[in-house]
Amino acid sequence: MTMVKQVSLGVVDDVRAGEFWRQALGHVRRPPRCEGDDWIVLEPPQGVPGVAIAMDVSESPAEEFPRIHFDLDAGERDLDEEVGRLVALGAQRVDGQHYPENPARPYVVLADPEGNQFCVEGRRAD
Length: 126
Fold this sequence. Notes:
- The chain is an alpha/beta fold.
- It contains two helices and eight strands.
- The longest helix is centred in the first third of the chain and has 12 residues, at 14-25.
- 21% of the residues are buried.
C-alpha cells in the first residue's frame, strides 16, 4: 500500500518557514543526506507519528484558496490556546468566508509566515 512519506511546501524563505513549522509541530530537522543537500526537511521526533515536511523554495505566491492544505489537531490543548501559540510564532488568521459557520468540530483557519493556509481543529474549554 502506498503512503504519504513527505509533503513539500512551497515557500520563498525556507529558513523562516522551516523554523515556524519546526516550532509549530515539534519536528526536528533531518540531517543532510549528502554533501550539498541544503533542503530543509522536518520530521517528527523518533517514535512520534507524523509526516515529514520539506521546504521547497518557490517564487510563486501562496494561493488564496489552496487546493491542498494542512489540517492540524490541537490535541489536548484548548483550540484558542493553540491558535494563540501559533499566532505568536508568526501565523496569521485568515478570513473564513468560504468555510462552514458551525462545523461538527470547531476549527480556525490560519496562514503560516509564507501565506500557506492551514486549519487547526480542537476543543474549546467552554
